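User: Hey, quick favor. My workstation is busy. Could you predict this chain's structure for me?
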Amino acid sequence: MRRLLLLMILICGCAQKVAEGRKEAVPLDQVPAAVMKAAQERLPEVKFDSAFKTPEGLYEIRGKTKTGKIQEAEVNAAGEVVLVE
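Assistant: No problem, here it is.
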């Protein structure tokens, strides 16, 4: 019985951590202007179609090039590009 109770506690704790680590979808019109501007300047050939906010406070802006390649820019709230993939 103790093992079952311990297992249930561990499962609940792990599920909470997984939920905390999720990205939140953000409509493009609600992404801060500085963030969008930085992404567009860094990847001018990309047409952005989705955005997410990470638990760390970064915005992931995703889109495709004319050839269909998916690219992503991670930008902080101050408008500084942190990573381009």
